């Protein structure tokens, strides 16, 4: 079954699995620095937060379960988008097996949608960040993701236009163009508006940042691997049947 519907269903299934794995990673690993950061925040005098009430609408247990469910839902959604993007980019991966195409696309999207923004605007735990700058920071973060995806699309398009060149030359040109695009993004976007509070332990900060990056890596790379495993056998069988009929 290699119709678009079949590809879409496999994408949704792969996204759900990758989202569940990422959510469980967040539950076990990311939760540790989150609790440490919340302890720092709760230890601050009320006057430092302008008298704001730190009371939560939902307890940590509910938030943790909601985080796993949210990761699964996000995985289902991006799985559908991933399958659609892969189906529409077949001309960029001519001659590559489905598994390789899927893993390559997953790695490329991880680089643009997770690694690049993590370099420019590293994730911060709950006790870091001014509430007044949330909208501005969100806009900057989404802007870097959009610009990174443009670099991925542009690199793929450039590769498709340079098929007359030898493989090593084409790969070098595309890599240099991608590096130049990433450098422009890192230089063009402004720095994060929020400083790191002095009472935030550096080990907690970096543990949270690395754990958060690990969670997104599991989501995107897991999606690429699982989708490739689900798609590769059916495509190979369809190709073999077509070749047998043509013989």
Main beta sheet strand tally, sense and closure: none
**Low-confidence runs (pLDDT<50, min 5 residues)?**
none
Number of DSSP strand runs:
0
Radius of gyration: 21 Å
| Amount of helix | over 70%
Instruction: Supply the number of helical segments.
Output: 6
Task: Tell me, briefly, the overall form.
Answer: globular
Topology order in helix (H) and strand (E) letters: HHHHHH
Structural class: mainly alpha
Give the oligomeric state. single chain
- Terminal CA distance reads 21 Å
The amount of beta strand, in percent, is under 5%
User: Could you report the average pLDDT, rounded to the nearest whole number?
Assistant: 87
Tally of structural domains = 2
Keywords: Membrane, Transmembrane, Transmembrane helix
Organism: Saccharothrix variisporea
InterPro entries: CbtA_put (IPR012666)
Protein name: Putative cobalt transporter subunit CbtA
Give me a quick take on this structure.
The protein has 6 helices and no strands.
Describe the structure.
The two termini are about 20 Å apart. About 25% of the residues are buried. The protein has 6 helices and no strands. The protein has 2 domains: about 5-130 and about 200-245, no CATH class; about 130-195. The protein has helices at about 5-45, 60-90, 100-120, 135-160, 165-190, 200-245. With about 250 residues, the protein is mainly α. It comes from Saccharothrix variisporea. This is Putative cobalt transporter subunit CbtA. It holds the Pfam family CbtA.
């Amino acid at each position: 079954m290699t119709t678009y519907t079949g590809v879409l269903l496999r994408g949704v299934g792969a996204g759900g699995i990758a989202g569940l794995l990422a959510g469980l990673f967040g539950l076990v690993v990311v939760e540790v620095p989150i609790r440490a950061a919340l302890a720092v925040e709760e230890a601050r005098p009320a006057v430092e937060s302008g008298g704001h009430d730190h009371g939560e609408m939902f307890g940590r247990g509910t938030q943790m379960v909601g985080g796993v469910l949210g990761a699964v839902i996000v995985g289902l959604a991006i799985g559908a988008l991933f399958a659609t993007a892969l189906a529409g980019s077949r001309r960029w991966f001519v001659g590559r097996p489905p598994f390789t195409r899927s893993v390559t696309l997953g790695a490329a999207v991880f680089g643009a949608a997770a690694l690049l923004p993590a370099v420019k605007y590293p994730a911060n735990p709950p006790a870091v960040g001014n509430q007044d700058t949330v909208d501005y920071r969100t806009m900057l973060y989404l802007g870097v993701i959009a610009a990174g995806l443009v670099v991925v699309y542009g690199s793929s398009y450039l590769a498709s236009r340079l098929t007359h060149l030898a493989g090593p030359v084409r790969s070098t040109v595309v890599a240099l163009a991608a590096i130049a695009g990433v450098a422009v993004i890192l230089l063009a976007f402004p720095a994060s508006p929020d400083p790191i509070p002095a009472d935030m332990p550096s080990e907690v900060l970096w543990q949270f940042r690395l754990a958060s990056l690990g969670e997104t890596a599991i989501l995107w790379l897991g999606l690429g691997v699982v989708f490739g495993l689900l798609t590769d056998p059916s495509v190979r069988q369809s190709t073999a049947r077509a070749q047998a009929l043509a013989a």
